[in-house]
Amino acid sequence: MRSLYLTLLFIFILGGAVKAQKAPVQKATKPGNDTIKSLDEVVISALRTNVPLKEIPASISYLNSRQINTVSKSIAPDEALRLVPGVKVENGTDGSRVHLYIRGQGILSESGFRGIQVLIDGVPVNDPGGYCPDLYDVDWATVKNVEVVKGLAASVYGANATGGIVNILTQNGGDKPVNTSLYTSAGSYGFWKVLGQVDGKQNNIDYRVSYSHMQGHGYREHQAFMGDNFSEKVNWTPSSRIKLTQILTYTNYFNQNSEGINLYRYENYGSRAANTDAVPYNEFHETKRLTGALLGTFDIDKNQNIQAKGYVRSNNYRETSNNGDDYKPYVTMGGSAQYNLNCGTGNLVNHFSLGTDFQTQTLTEHEYAVPDEGHRDSTRVDSYWSRQCFDLDQILINQIIKQRSFGVFLIDKLDIAKKLYALVNVRYDYLYTSLENNIPTPDSISPSGHRIFSKPTYRIGLAYDAAKFLNIYANYGTGFVIPSNDELYNNPIAWGGFNALIKPSTSQGFEIGARGEIGSSFHYDVTGFEILSDNEFYRYSVEGRGNNTAFYGNIGKSNKWGVETFVSWSPVRNVLLDAAYTYSHFQYTSPDSVKNHWMPNSPEHMLTAEVSYNFLKNFTATLSTEWQSKWCIQVDDSIYNQYTIGQTYYQKGSVRSSWVDGYNTYSLDLKYNWKLGWLKGELGLYVKNLFDEHYFGFTEPNNGVDYNSFQPAPGREYFVNLKLRF
C-alpha cells in the first residue's frame, strides 16, 4: 500500500511539472558566478563512470561552487550540504567534528559514520569496513563541486555505501601559470581561519597547493578546536591517451570534547555547560593524518580505457575520556582497477565496466586507565590547547586489529533509442577482520579471533529522458552494512576483544523520481523511496562498565520511506530561490517491543531554503532558513517510567520524554564583490542563527533516568570574511 502511495505521489508531481512547463517563464540572471547547469551539462563521476545526470537512474544531488560557497564560513559539511534533501548533518561541536546520515543510514554511530562512501578526488576516506571517522581532510573553501548519491543506488561500492556516496571534487589549477588566493575569516567565540593557495597551469600540467589554519573556542565550555589542513594536487597529461593525478594531504585536528549533558544539567547550569567529566579529565580528540594517492586513466583506443588508483594513509588518533586515554594509530593501504568498454551503434550502445577494489588496514590500540570519579582532578582549570592527561599504570586495552576487504563489481549501462537508459551493477564483497589481544584473560574469555563478512549486492534501474522538463528514473537495489571497528571492539563481555554478538545489517529498497528544467529559470528534483532493513543496529549499556555506553547490537527490522524534493527557481532577474525538503517516516517493524517506534535521530520533516538577491551589480544578500521537526532520542521509552517528578536530584515539575523539540533558524549572508586592476576580492558578513534560537545540535541515547545526552547548538553568531584572488 505504501508503494502505491509513493507511486501516486510521483504521478501527481509529474502532472504538476507538465502543467508548469506550459507557463511562460522570464529569462533571468542568477546571482553568483556559477549558475545551476542543465541536465545535459552535468556529468556525474560518483558511480565510477562519467555519465550525464539525465542518463542515471538514481537520486543524485549535484552542488556547484555557488551553492557550496554561499555560506562564507566554509569549515564544515553542514554548511556545504545544507541543500541536499535526505541528508542530515549534526554539528554539535560548532567545528568540523560532525555526524552524517543519509536516509537514516549512519544514525547512532558513536563517532564518525558508517555505510556512507566518502571520496575526496576519487580517494576513499572509509576504512575497509566502510567506517568514515571524520571529514577533516576536506577544506571546503577549496571544493569545486559535490555529488551526493542517496540510497541503495550506491551499492556499486558494496558495504561501504549502503546509505549513499558523498563524492567531493576539489579545484584544479587555474588558467594562468600562477594564481594566488587568500581567504580569511573571523567571528564569534574566538573563531578565525586563514587559507593561502597557489595554483596554475603550464602546458600539460595543472597544479594546486593550499594550506589553512583555523581555530575557535567553541560555544560551550571545553569545546575549543584547532585544525591545520595541507592539500596538494597535480594533474599531468603526458599524452592524449594518459592522464595522471597525484594527491597529497595532511590534516592535524584537535578538539576538546565537552560531550552531551542531561536535561537536569542543561536546565540548571545553562546551554554552555560541559559534561561534569569533560574538564576534570580533559577529554579531547586529536587526529594527525597523512594521505598520498596516485590516480590514472589510460586510453587503449577511443572505446576502451583502464582506470587505476593506489593510496596509502597514516593516521595517529588519540581520545581521552573518563574511561581511559586511548591511542589508535593505524595505516591504511588500498587501490582499485577498472576496465571500461563502449560498444554498439545506432539505437543500442553498451557501456561495460569490470573492476575490483582492495583495502587493508592495521590498527594498534593501547588504552590506559585513568583515575575513577572519586579521585579525578575536580579543581583542574580548563586550558584551550592542553594535552595533559592523568594516566595510571594500568593498561585496559592492548590489541592489534587487522582488516582486509576485497570487492569485485560489474557495471553495464545500455543506451536505448537515445532516450531510454538501463543500468545494472552487481558486486561481491569479502571483508576479514582479526583481533590479537595482548592482555592475559581468564580461560572463559577468548577476546582474540576473527570475523568474516561476505555478501553479493546488486542494483537495476531505468531512466527515461522524456523531455528537458521531464527526466524519469526508477531503481531497485540491495545492500549490507557491517559493524564498524568501534562496534566490533567495544566488547560488552570484557575490556578489549571482539563483540561476537553483533551481525551485519541488510537492506533492500526502491526509489522513483523525476527531475528537469522548465525554461531557463526553474529546476526541480523529486524522489520517493522505501527501504526495508533487517538486523538494525542499536546502542545499549552494560552494568559495571561505568559511563561506557557505546555498546552495539542488532535490534530487529525497520521500514524507512519518504520523499525528497529540491527546487531552484529564479522568478525575476537577479533573484534565486533554492529549497530542499525531506519527509522521512522511519520506524521499527520488529520485535514487538519496539514495533512502530520511530528510529532515533530521524525527524519527520526537514527543510532548508534560501533566497539570494544580487543588487547594485556587486552586492549579494542571501537569507536562509532551516526547519526541522521533533525527533526521537531513545528507542526504549520505559526508562522514563522510572522518573519521579519532584525527585530531589532533578528539577521539580520537569517532565522527561523520548522526544526532542525541533527548531527553526534563520541566517543572513551579505557579500560585496569588487575588482581593482589585477586584484579581485570579496568581502562578506555572515550572521548565523539570526534570531538567537536555542536548540540541540546533536543528541545521543544513553540508558538511565534523565541520562540522555544533549549537545546545545550555538545561539547567534557573527563572522566577517575576506577573499582575495590575484
Describe the protein's architecture and organization:
By secondary structure, the protein is mainly beta. The chain has a single domain, classed as Maltoporin, Chain A. Helices cover 6% and strands 53% of the residues. The protein has five helices and 38 strands. The strands form seven sheets. It has a 23-stranded antiparallel beta sheet that branches. A five-stranded mixed beta sheet has the order 3-10-11-7-8. The radius of gyration is 25 Å and the shape is globular.
Quick take:
The protein has about 725 residues and is mostly beta strands. The chain has 5 helices and 38 strands.
Gap between N and C termini: 60 Å
Arithmetic mean of pLDDT: 86
Q: What share of residues are in beta strands? A: over 45%
Q: How would you describe the shape?
A: globular
